[in-house]
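Complex record, two chains
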Amino acid sequence: MTVALNVTDVSLAFGGLKAVSSFSLALPSGGLHGLIGPNGAGKTTLFNLLTGVYRPDTGRIELGDQRIDGKKPSQIAAMGMARTFQNIRLFGELSVIDNVRTAAGLRTKSGLFRTLFRTPMHVAEERAITQRSLELLDVLEITHRKDEQAKGLPYGDQRRLEIARALATEPRVLLLDEPVAGMNTQEKRDMRKLIQSLPDQFGISILLIEHDMGLVMDICEDITVIDHGVTIARGAPTAIQNDPAVIEAYLGVPDESVAVADDALPAAT
Amino acid sequence: MKPVQDRVAALRPSVAGAVGSSLAPFALALGLAVVMDAVIGPAVGATWSKILLDVGIAIVLAGSLNVVNGYAGQFSIGHAGFMLVGGYAAVWLTFYGSVLWFGTKAPIPGFLGSGQLLFLGSCVLGGLVASLFGLLVGLPSLRLRGDYLAIVTLGFGEIVRVLGQLTARQPKSIAAIKGRSMAELANNLGGAEGFSQVPGYTTLFSVYVFAFVLLVLVYRLKYSSKGRALLAVRENEIAAEAMGVDTTRSKVVAFVFAAFFAGIGGAIYAHQVGALDPKELGFQKSIDLVIIVVIGGMGSITGIVIGASILVILPEVFRQFSDYRMIAYALALIVVMILRPQGIMGVKELWETTWWRRRMSALTALMARRKR
């Protein structure tokens, strides 16, 4: 098994608060992998570390065989890491297709001179990114909205556009930050099918943050659980569901006095 | 799904076609400039020719500022500073060059004669010097955002203006200039009096060549990956960076590009006025340019043309109200901002508005009916 993303002993503190403590992860090439934890566990902070928004205090992060910690987010994106944002960050005034084309622009080589003189190479590159962007909109099923302004899209389509845009950078590893948050049951079902199809279709590994436990348990091969920046469990979905540490993190420690009080209540059926 | 670079080879246009479509807009720009000079200029008379000159210069300046303030969303209020540096480099070259190499202070006549070539060279030099300053200011300061960047650019504009006023006296007689070298004269830029007796090479042709070429270039920039990267920086810097846009580099490139054309704008301005006075190119001038961009629509190329036309022509039209002119002008600005806070065009181009599309579809329908 080759490793797409290798995180070793990464820590980050904001002042006295340890946001992430010696986190390690070996993300295999291909497949869907879950990252869960209660609110404030440090999941999004971890994404920000992986994509270069924050620099880790200690530890190392490798994407394939390249070390990426300490690099700028744009350099990390160029090396093959893409992400979506929990609080959607589209280029609001730009059209849907231009959002995707902007990201695809990462894979063009034309500089300012070629752009201003529209050399054959520049023309070919612009055609190529338009072609690929249209295909991506097709995969994400938002082709009918291609000329609309991104900020005017319905919520579900904005999330789809975020994924299309991330895929346009031609990543090896894709980080999805709560892709189904705020969606209804039908939308979630569609999105689940879509996310499941991505690893094989694009040859990428996906690391998924999601609060919808049903979804995570269903589609992820393995799950990492963190709480207060510390990894508390890792393994197959079934193992995670029965892990006492995970149950404790989500539901709290069983309290004797509460348990007694519970017993005193009539059984809820 | 095939990566972008694997598709490129198959999508290459034929070389002949590509060269044609690459150069055709420049040829068109040249042709239109000739039309401006030879047809429209004589037709509208001297007063309006002068106004058209000012409109063209405003297009060069505001069109380039738009790349920074409109596309990249950075708030620069030091554009007149770049104009001034470019202007100084240009007048130094034409005035002293003319005296030292051709022995005259007067404009040398002849279409593309040595005088006009010298002027062309001075415009390019002005652009290069200004873009060098753009790089100098841009590199350290473009990590700053919003108000902070505005303050740095403001400071730059003021520093350039004050330094200009501190330069040495300009020797005006041919005898005083002869025997000195261009390099020795580099500090003799007129000081607080300004640089005068600049040969008046600027014509409608030269102004509109630069204006139309600039419009072609900013159009190409806007509808390309480089331009979209700038727009992405404006829309959401964090997302832009995550999508592989080197935001600092993009901003510096925008700054250098804008400074280049500001320098050219300064050069044609100085050769039109016949002088370069640092007091004229201070903070107020920068603000005037920002107003054109804001009124026209941040990021809109057609908006800039409309904004530049309105803001140059309006004060002229109000001239008959003499004393109340600036009040009327200011009121007009306030009204526009209340009615259309996003500027006249917003971020859109004329051909992207529903108004235009409706007109166009009505036109095609009319044509179709006529054919039947």
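Note: DSSP finds 14 helices and no strands in chain B.
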